[in-house]
Amino acid sequence: MIRINGNITLDDTEITESFLRASGPGGQNVNKVETAVQLRFNAKNSPNLPPHVFARLRELAGQRMTKDGVLVLTASEYRSQDRNRKAALERLVDLVQKAAVVPKYRRPTKPTYSSKLKRLEKKHQRGGIKKNRRKVDLD
């Protein structure tokens, strides 16, 4: 069980990991050992993920989520398979936690009268500064 927050927990069986050879430093290990991890999480069919969280997760994931609703995360920054597994799992937990946060509703407001006056005064001052930079007419 992977605990995301108080309401959401993911079952270990929902996550599949596959290992592949990573590019980058590693010496002779690069050609022999599969250290990179590709983590797959079927978010669309997950019984533990509410629909509103899935919708935000789809938005946050972008190209990392397939059309079928499968989230694919690849971790290959470390030389060891274990550290890459932990990194991929942390990314998954972080993404789902961000998706679980309900965005605050923004109430549209109008600028106050004084803020409009301040803005216009600053524009007038800035225009005056630029006006003083011009060449002086001798006429």
Describe, in plain words, how this protein is organized in 3D.
The strands form 2 sheets. Strands 3-4-5 form a 3-stranded antiparallel beta sheet, with helices on one face. The protein has a two-stranded antiparallel sheet with strand order 1-2. The protein has helices at 29-32, 51-61, 81-100, 113-133, and strands spanning 2-3, 9-10, 15-20, 36-42, 70-75. It has one domain: Double Stranded RNA Binding Domain (2-Layer Sandwich), CATH 3.30.160.20. The longest helix is centred in the last third of the chain and has 21 residues, at 113-133. It contains 4 helices and 5 strands. With 139 residues, it is an alpha+beta fold. The relative contact order is 0.15. The radius of gyration is 26 Å and the shape is elongated. It starts with a strand and ends in a 6-residue tail after the last helix.
SSE blueprint:
Layout: E1 2-3, E2 9-10, E3 15-20, H1 29-32, E4 36-42, H2 51-61, E5 70-75, H3 81-100, H4 113-133
Gist of the model:
With 139 residues, the protein is α+β, with helices and mostly antiparallel strands. Helix content is 40%, strand content 17%. It has one domain (2-100): Double Stranded RNA Binding Domain.
Please tag this protein with its features:
139 residues, alpha+beta, three-stranded antiparallel β-sheet, 5 strands, 40% helix, 17% strand, elongated
Which fold name corresponds to the CATH topology?
Answer: Double Stranded RNA Binding Domain
**Residue share in β-strands:** 15-25%
| Low-confidence spans | none
What sort of overall outline do the alpha carbons produce when their principal axes are compared? elongated
Largest sheet, in brief, is: 3 strands, antiparallel
Category from helices, strands and their pairing: alpha+beta
Quantity of strands, as a count: 5
Question: Whole-number radius of gyration?
Answer: 26 Å
Walk across the major sheet and give the strand order: 3-4-5
The total tally of domains equals: 1
Going by CATH, the architecture would be: 2-Layer Sandwich
Mean of residue pLDDT values = 83
Fraction of helical residues: 40-55%
CATH class category label: Alpha Beta
